Amino acid sequence: MVPRPQVLLAAAPASNHNDTLPHITGTSDVNRRLKMAGVDKLHSMDIKGKGVKVAIIDTGVDYLHPSLGGGFGAGFKISFGYDFVGDNYTGFNNPVPGPDPLVTCASGGHGTHVSGSLGMTDIADVGFGLVGVAPEASLGMYRVFGCAGGAADDVILSAMQRAAEDGADIISMSLGDFVAWEGGSPYVPLVQRIIDSGIAVIAALGNDGQSGPFEVSVPGLAPAALGVGSVENEIYPTLYRAENNIGGSLDYISVLPFLAKGPLTVYPVGSGVATPVTDLQADGCDPKDWTTAASAVTDGEHTAALLLMSPSECSFIVYSQNLLALNITTVIFYTNNPDTPALLAEPGSKLLKDLSSLPHGRDYILSFNSVDVFDTPSPAGRTIDYFSSIGPSMEMTLKPQLSSPGGNILATFPRSAGGYAILSGTSMATPYTAGVYALLKSMQQGWSVAEITSLLQSTAVPIKAQNVDILSSVTQQGGGLINAYGAVMAHSQISPSQLSLRDSASPAKQSITVKNISKKGKTYIISHTGASYIRTLTNFTTKYATAEFSQTQFTLGPGQSTIVQVQITPAPESVPESEPVYSGFINVNTDGSNYVVPYLGVPYNRYDANYFHYNTTHWVGNQWPSTAPSVTAPGDINVGNYIPLDLNFTGPANAKLPWIDFVVVQPSNLIRLDAVPVNTSFVPTYYGFDPPVKIDVPDMTLPILPGYLDVPYYGQIGIWGFGALPPSIDPNGILSAVPRPNTISGTVLVNSVFGFENGTLFLTTTGGFRPLLRVLRYGSNGTSADDYVSWLGPICNVLEVSR
């Protein structure tokens, strides 16, 4: 099941009930996002994607929007597609397919926005004068989401196959679901087959950047897919200005200008205007705030606006319930925190200052007369968006390939929801990338997917991290910000266009081919630039790798090529438990044009690394909890060689159950926990007790089974993995799957109890056993004991199991 695409709604339309679409004018550079990659220059050269078919798999499209052509089928901008599901599909009921991908519900606006970003053209007297990246490309919509809920994998896979069969040149997918591993996903082989047939698959990597590295979504996770990260727009494109009654003004964010019937008196929640305004008073979380507001507001519907902080501790539900009681129809949200991912902190603080400076008894009144739109620079402009998911894949395939503008993007929205919206997400960066691909494809119809992708990646422009004078990690930006003009005008080819160096302190030497495809000779200079060194639990650092080249300068005639060998060596790493990733760029410069080959790797061998972190004294930054495996009985904490277990269920059941606590600090796709006899002959990697100490405890009276990899056992406590498990696993064991068999985000993997209500071996007999934990080493096939890191725990003696 793939969840519904989630984006950040930067600003909704001022009204959801516009009878006609707006026509907005002003000074805003609404198409600035095109200039960020030189798309505007290509448009001026009449390169607009003509003759290229782009299939979009999404929530459907309001193709009746005039900026999207006003119709569907041959001769229209949205010329092909299919509805696989219908309005009422949620992912859990039966789809109702049909030939028409039209969507009119506001919740289906995601696909309309994506379509507009890629190919819209605002007509005269409608909209803002917006233009999509490839306005002359032929677009197709394959609807896989209803008006609510998610979509089953088989529906999305069918849409991908249908789009390929319908002759698409590009499939754009602003959707996805987190999957820890490339292996086992049905999307990976299908993406490969589609690309092998000459069709590009361009997919969002997700909006989980705050979860840390190794958090990318499928299908963008597929090695063959062009996975996309998000860059913040250089401007916030729609601001308007209201006049106040003290000789000043207030700039506010809205897609469309707010059209009040008359002046509005502003009432800060919890304070009125008689006392200084504070964040605590204005957050709307305290019921007393609303009581105070109720006593002040007299005509909420026509003459009042309520001032609230941006939602933090309280939800919109709390706000909406109280606003309804007051009959308030206008709300002004503000933030005065410049570090939050929101704009206009300065006007918000100014508003509070103006309110606090008013003399007692004087109202603060706003008049919304101006309808002229203007823009303001984004503090995070031209940097990787904080939400953009961070690669690489768990198998260390370089992701994302590149990044495109996806933060605060103004584009079309269903007519029923105002016609336009500003959204943020890798969902918005994906159609931008697909549009640029279409521009290049229209100029190079005979080029393969690999050739176009390689050119887009090698001509990208590496960008710096926000507020730090170092390049963002390749795990965030890939090759950098897409450069449409640079790709079309390129006169050299670099291959490969990325290097995934995997896990090694001494990665193998790499070969890069440089080819001159121009009509004159060129001199090339090779160099290296390090990018941010990233760990799971610390900020970015300048711990760069080094690079040595077989040649650093050479001249190539027209059509000539040469091979440059490069040896990249990461800096020594003493804390592999922090899951570090190093990265950087190989630069190929000629005639002022710079081409890049991004690379990344893990600076140690995962197979040989510590999988249980025993020593926390040398940790970098924040520490893990104590992660040596342990058994905890009620009232005791890791009591050592012997743990008596009184499982008498006369009291609360959970109070009697023991726990096994462990954290695995390296990626593993198979983790198994078994109960083995006290005197097992198995020799583990680590002991959870003192082996010389002998304790006489009777064995359990349960039958001893052959066990996994010939280790006799009583039964399986738990198993965690992905995809297909090795066939030698006991089919009668208790399977307890978890969604993420690794600890990249730093959370405890499992706290597993021994007993369950329906009765397992621990509720049927007394006697002793030992817990045996085995973790498959990265890169192993799991067929021998040496493929696992193991821990054998202390004796657990079940004294009583009565209920």
Brief overview:
This protein has about 800 residues and is α/β, with parallel strands linked by helices. The longest helix is centred in the middle third of the chain and has 18 residues, at about 425-445. The radius of gyration is 30 Å and the shape is globular.
* N-C termini distance: 40 Å
Mean pLDDT, to the nearest integer, reads 84
CATH topology of the largest domain: Rossmann fold
The helix count comes to 14
Integer tally of domains? 4
Low-confidence stretches: 14-18, 271-277, 337-343, 615-626, 649-655, 723-762
The percentage of residues in β strands lies in: 25-35%
Oligomer classification:
single chain
CATH architecture of the largest domain: 3-Layer(aba) Sandwich
Query: Which strand order does the major sheet show?
Result: 3-4-2-5-7-9-17
CATH C-level class of the largest domain: Alpha Beta
Number of strands: 40
Major β-sheet annotation: 7 strands, parallel
CATH superfamily of the largest domain: Peptidase S8/S53 domain
Overall geometry comes to globular
Radius of gyration, in Å, reads 30 Å
Helix residue percentage = 10-25%
Structural class: alpha/beta
Family: Belongs to the peptidase S8 family.
Active site: 58 (charge relay system), 110 (charge relay system), 427 (charge relay system)
Keywords: Hydrolase, Protease, Serine protease, Signal
Domain C5a peptidase/Subtilisin-like protease SBT2-like Fn3-like: 500-604
